[in-house]
Structure formats: C-alpha cells, structure tokens
C-alpha cells in the first residue's frame, strides 16, 4: 500500500511539473498573439493585460505595410525564397555527401569527418565580418543567392552528419538488388535510396527550416536593402527614429512565427525523428 501511494505521489508530482512546463512554453506564444491584437495605447499602458477588444486589424495592416509603408508581404516572400532555396541545396548536397561518407572509402575520409565536427564547433557569428566582405567582393549582398549560400554553408555540416548516421543503418540489400538489376551507383542512389529515405530527408529538412526561417543576424547584415529584407529583419522596420509602432511590430512577429508553429504542429513526429537521427550509429 505504501509503495502504491508513493508511486501515485510520484506520478502526481511529474504531472504537475509537466503541466507547469507546458504553461511556461505556451505563455510566450499566447502573450505574443494577444499583444498583437492590442492597440498601441493598450500596449503602452499595461502590456500584461489581455486586449479589451481583440482584433485582427493589426495583422492586416502590418501585412500591407502599416503607416510606414513597409512591405511585410514582400519580406515574407523573401523568407520563403531564401528558406526554400537553402533547404533544396542542403537536402541535395547533404544526402549525397552523407551517403558517400557511409558507403565509400577514399583518401581523407577520416579528416573530412573530423572537419565536419570542427565546423559545428565554430560559432557562426564569429565569421560575420569575413562573410560580409566576401559577399561584397562577389556582389552577393542583397542577393538571394548570397544569403542562401551562407545558410547552406553553416547548416550543411549538421545535415551531412545526421544523414551519414541514417545511411549507416540503411539496408544494403536494397542497393545490392538494384545493382543486380543493372543500376549504376547514381541510379541506385536516386531511384532506390532517396525514395526510401524520404522520411529521414524530410525530418532533417524540417529541423533546418526552424533555424533558417528564424535567423536574424546574417539576414540583417547581408540583406539591408528595403525590398530584400527577410521577415525577421522586417520586424525592425516598425521601429522609427522618433516612433515605434508596437502593435504592428507585434503583429509582424506573430506573422513571422506562424509558419514555424504550423510546421511544428503538422510535422512534430518528423522533428522528433530528425533529432534522433544522429543516435543510430
């Protein structure tokens, strides 16, 4: 009896902890969207109180640009282009490199693996100045390709290592059967390995999406022309020299967070799988 009571008490404590943790995680999201439905006066008077008359008007006006004429819809499109282009390169290059590392022996393979781990340890923001000058020299500032190349370079080591771990556990019997049927190495990879690995590829892509979509510092530094800014940088456009449009700023942050929230709700199982890909080897 005593042991059962202790077990129930333990479950109850764990449940309370999980409830508290869920509230702590959800509070910033709820606070963001409630604040985005307020007027500037309500935000300035007491930001913690809920809106008196919740309205989606701020979202519509922020999307159109607000009183400052800022094209938030264009910023959103820029983020879609940059994120989509980066995910394409990451998936294509990461899959081929991860598969090659797991299947073939070549000179310098061990060094390349250690280099990938070293690349993960280098703080990306420590390279801001060299990257800025490098892109300027080749005319890639305020250019989609410039930011796409930067994101690809910094997220590629993680992608390769995760897919390397996955392909290490991939059944070789499928590849052997494809080779017996006359497929080349590339044919085996693209016609057998890739279709079977869609789950792993989508998992890594979703994990990368969250980081790329919300990145601010490189986007702020590289895409400083008004029409080339991403949505995360666009939030700062409502902060003028003498005026801050708080309602539009919160509405823009809510719009910027919406794709990440939707992706997480839809693909939460794939995100969990993506986090665990590196533990198979």
TrEMBL record:
Q: Cross-referenced InterPro entries, in alphabetical order?
A: MetI-like, MetI-like_sf
Keyword Transmembrane helix annotated = yes
Q: Give residue ranges for domain ABC transmembrane type-1.
A: 76-267
Pfam families named among the record's database cross-references: BPD_transp_1 (PF00528)
Q: Does Membrane count among this protein's keywords?
A: yes
Q: Which PROSITE patterns does the entry mention? A: ABC_TM1 (PS50928)
Which family does the entry's similarity section mention? Belongs to the binding-protein-dependent transport system permease family.
Going by the UniProt record, its keywords in alphabetical order are: Cell membrane, Membrane, Transmembrane, Transmembrane helix, Transport
Q: How does it sit in the membrane?
A: Multi-pass membrane protein
Q: What taxonomic ancestry is recorded? A: Bacteria, Pseudomonadati, Atribacterota, Atribacteria, Atribacterales
As for subcellular location, the record says:
Cell membrane
Q: What is this protein called?
A: Carbohydrate ABC transporter permease
Domain of life assignment: Bacteria
Q: Where are the membrane-spanning stretches?
A: 12-34, 75-99, 111-132, 144-164, 206-224, 244-267
Q: Where would you say this protein principally sits, based on its record?
A: membrane
Q: Which organism is it from?
A: Thermatribacter velox
């Amino acid at each position: 009896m005593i042991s059962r009571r202790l077990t129930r008490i333990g479950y109850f404590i764990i449940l309370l902890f999980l409830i508290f943790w869920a509230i702590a995680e959800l509070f910033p999201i709820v606070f963001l969207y409630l604040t985005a439905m307020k007027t500037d006066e309500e935000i300035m008077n007491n930001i913690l109180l809920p809106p008196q008359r919740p309205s989606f008007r701020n979202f519509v006006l922020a999307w159109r640009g607000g009183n400052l004429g800022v094209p938030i819809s264009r910023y959103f499109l820029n983020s879609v282009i940059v994120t989509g282009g980066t995910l394409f390169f990451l998936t294509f290059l990461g899959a081929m490199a991860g598969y090659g590392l797991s299947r073939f022996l070549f000179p310098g393979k061990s060094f390349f693996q250690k280099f990938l781990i070293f690349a993960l340890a280098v703080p990306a923001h420590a390279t801001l100045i060299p990257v800025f000058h490098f892109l300027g020299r080749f005319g890639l500032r305020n250019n989609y390709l410039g930011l796409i190349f930067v994101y690809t370079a910094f997220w590629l080591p993680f992608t390769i290592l995760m897919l390397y771990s996955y392909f290490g556990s991939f059944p070789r019997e499928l590849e052997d059967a494809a080779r017996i049927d006359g497929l080349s190495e590339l044919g085996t990879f693209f016609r057998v390995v890739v279709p079977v690995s869609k789950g792993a590829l989508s998992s890594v892509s979703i994990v990368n999406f969250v980081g790329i979509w919300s990145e601010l510092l490189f986007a702020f530094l590289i895409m400083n022309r008004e029409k080339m800014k991403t949505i995360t940088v666009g939030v700062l456009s409502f902060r003028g020299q003498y005026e801050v449009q708080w309602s539009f700023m919160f509405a823009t942050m809510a719009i910027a967070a919406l794709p990440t929230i939707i992706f997480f709700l839809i693909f939460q199982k794939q995100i969990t799988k993506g986090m665990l890909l590196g533990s198979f080897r």
